[in-house]
Design goal:
single chain; about 45 residues; mainly alpha; elongated; LDCC motif putative metal-binding protein
Amino acid sequence: MIKLLKKFIKNLAEENSKTFGNNRLDCCDLNKSNNSNNKKSEKNK
């Protein structure tokens, strides 16, 4: 059971690094990327 949990956490960490890069994840950085995506989609309307 412990091995399964460790494998899950390792896979989760790898996917997060692919998605968000290796930068620190904080609310300000995440909101900047979300706000820029929202502004782009609003311009396309």
